[in-house]
């Protein structure tokens, strides 16, 4: 798919038009299509608005043109803005449109135009790698009398990085092994001028990453530690680490998942895809910040060599952890990755993002990520970034009471799971224990990272959640 910006209106070669129904519509000045907008008044469109949450999309056929109206009165709610535009694209594509004209009034901000273009990219996304019949390529032409060219390019770039993350997650586990994920990350880093380092299982062992290796050892596919480094502010020694959970497939280990739960477990690397996509976006935008992405990539499988409930693991930090349930493997890989970020990369702040707990889905569903942090700075920046990009977060209490059950092991420093209640919070606080006092925030994206049924504007599967949120967070921190 592609997006270009023009400041001269022309419908030549276009087979569809997505029309924002808000403010000034410059296309109404073109005599050949003015009658359409006269026949369908803005008030008539407003009367058909089904809800205040999604806005609405009405589709019309006018001659050989497909006309899709998108109510963007919701534009100050960036979640609704992106989703409404994405749904408009899906409606146009279902009408067999490929060349889509998008007129934008001059009263939009640059930020809103960027979000509109993100919605265009998200709505046009199709994962058809394994289909014999490929989806047609969609091309967008954004027109306005005001120069929005930079905003269009920014939105296009963020949409591309989000869709890259979706591709990584949507690829089946047998094809997206830890080695392949490392190769994909390295290839993308080279394209964006981002430095990278890939550590194999022997180098990981030398660093003493015992909890990471324990999870990995049940698979014949070896683990990889993926490190991407972007130096956007070389005169500054401060580095922010983005740590993503990278379980490329999770069977649950000996505490094995049921068939319904296991079928979507290629998605357990959603955090890894998010930090890879975010660093690439940050580099492409040239944000003045130093950012390192760290991914402990492995599989959690069952074999004669797999780790067991009751095992005691020595982590890279030197602390020990008693394994209670092998299906709570993500935190074991993350604690070593976080330790690496603070000890080897000297990060002053760490944000980890992971499809970590079923409790997150139960409590917050598929739209909100759970945020656990006692850093006022990171909490404020992440919440502001959430409002700016439309990826929703909800702060959970970071109360030490939730960590107490994790400290009751009689044979190790920690149990790696606690009681039945508050598991999402407890998991985040356990990972924080290995951040060595640095600014820390944990994002549990188990719900929003992967949709088992589509939402308006989104098809079933990976969402790329976290790419835009982390990008906006680093942009704000750099200001």
Structure, briefly:
The chain has 15 helices and 19 strands. With 479 residues, it is α/β, with parallel strands linked by helices.
Kindly report the spatial arrangement of strands forming the biggest sheet: 7-8-10-9-13-17-14-15
Main beta sheet? 8 strands, mixed
The number of helical elements comes to 15
- Highest CATH level, the class of the largest domain: Alpha Beta
What is the arithmetic mean of pLDDT? Answer: 90
CATH homologous superfamily of the largest domain, by name?
Zn peptidases
Helix percentage range: 25-40%
Would you identify the regions where 5 or more consecutive residues have pLDDT less than 50? 26-64
Let me know the number of strands: 19
Name the CATH architecture of the largest domain: 3-Layer(aba) Sandwich
Number of domains: 2
What form results from the Cα inertia axes? globular
| CATH fold topology of the largest domain | Aminopeptidase
Structural class: alpha/beta
Beta-strand proportion: 15-25%
Rg (CA only): 23 Å
End-to-end separation in angstroms reads 32 Å
Blueprint (SSEs and pairs):
Elements: E1 2-6, E2 16-20, H1 31-39, H2 42-47, E3 57-62, E4 65-70, H3 78-94, E5 99-103, H4 110-124, E6 139-143, H5 149-170, H6 178-192, E7 195-199, H7 201-206, H8 210-216, E8 224-231, E9 240-250, H9 259-262, H10 270-285, E10 290-300, E11 312-314, E12 320-322, H11 330-343, E13 349-354, H12 358-364, E14 368-373, H13 376-389, E15 392-395, E16 414-415, H14 423-432, E17 439-444, E18 450-451, E19 461-462, H15 467-478
Parallel strand pairs: 1-6, 2-4, 2-5, 5-6, 9-10, 9-13, 12-16, 13-17, 14-15
Antiparallel strand pairs: 3-4, 7-8, 8-10, 11-12, 14-17, 18-19
Helix pairs in contact: 3-4, 4-5, 5-10, 6-10, 8-11, 10-15, 11-14, 13-15
């Amino acid at each position: 798919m592609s997006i270009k910006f023009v400041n001269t209106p022309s419908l030549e070669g276009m087979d569809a038009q997505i029309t924002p129904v808000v403010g000034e519509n410059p296309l109404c000045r073109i005599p050949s299509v003015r009658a359409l907008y006269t026949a369908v008044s803005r008030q008539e469109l407003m009367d058909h608005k089904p809800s205040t949450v999604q806005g609405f999309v009405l589709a019309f056929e006018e001659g050989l043109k497909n006309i899709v109206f998108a109510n963007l009165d919701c534009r100050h709610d960036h979640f609704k803005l992106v989703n409404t535009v994405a749904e408009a694209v899906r409606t146009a594509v279902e009408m067999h449109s490929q060349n889509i004209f998008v007129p934008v009034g001059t009263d939009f901000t640059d930020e809103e135009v960027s979000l509109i273009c993100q919605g265009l990219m998200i709505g046009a996304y199709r994962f058809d790698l394994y289909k014999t019949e490929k989806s047609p390529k969609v091309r967008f032409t954004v027109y306005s009398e005001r120069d929005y060219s930079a905003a269009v390019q920014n939105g296009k770039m963020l949409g591309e990085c989000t869709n890259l993350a979706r591709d990584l997650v949507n690829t089946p586990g047998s094809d997206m092994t830890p080695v392949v994920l490392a190769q994909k990350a390295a290839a993308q880093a080279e394209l964006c001028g981002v430095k990278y380092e890939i550590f194999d299982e022997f180098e990981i062992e030398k660093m003493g990453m015992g909890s990471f290796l324990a999870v990995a050892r049940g698979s014949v596919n070896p683990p990889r530690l993926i490190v991407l480094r972007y130096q956007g502010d070389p005169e500054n020694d401060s580095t922010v680490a983005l740590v993503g959970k990278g379980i490329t497939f999770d069977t649950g280990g000996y505490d094995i998942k049921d068939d319904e739960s296991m079928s979507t477990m290629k998605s357990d690397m959603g955090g890894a895809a998010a930090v890879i996509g975010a660093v690439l976006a940050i580099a492409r935008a040239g944000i003045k910040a130093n950012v390192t992405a760290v991914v402990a990539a492995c599989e959690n499988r069952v074999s004669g060599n797999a780790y067991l409930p009751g095992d005691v693991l020595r982590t890279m930090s030197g602390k020990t952890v008693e394994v209670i349930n092998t299906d709570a493997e993500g935190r074991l890989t993350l604690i070593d990755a976080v330790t690496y970020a603070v000890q080897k990369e000297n990060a002053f702040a760490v944000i980890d993002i992971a499809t970590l707990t079923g409790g997150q889905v139960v409590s917050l569903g598929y739209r909100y990520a759970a945020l656990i942090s006692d850093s006022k700075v990171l909490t404020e920046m992440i919440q502001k970034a959430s409002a700016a990009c439309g990826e929703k977060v909800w702060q959970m209490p970071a109360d030490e009471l939730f960590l107490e059950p994790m400290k009751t092991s009689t044979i190790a420093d920690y149990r790696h799971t606690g009681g039945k209640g508050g598991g999402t919070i407890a998991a985040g606080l356990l990972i924080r224990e290995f951040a060595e006092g640095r600014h820390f925030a944990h994002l549990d994206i188990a719900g929003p990272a992967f949709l088992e049924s589509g939402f308006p504007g989104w098809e079933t599967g990976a969402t790329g959640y976290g790419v835009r949120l982390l990008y906006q967070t680093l942009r704000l921190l750099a200001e």
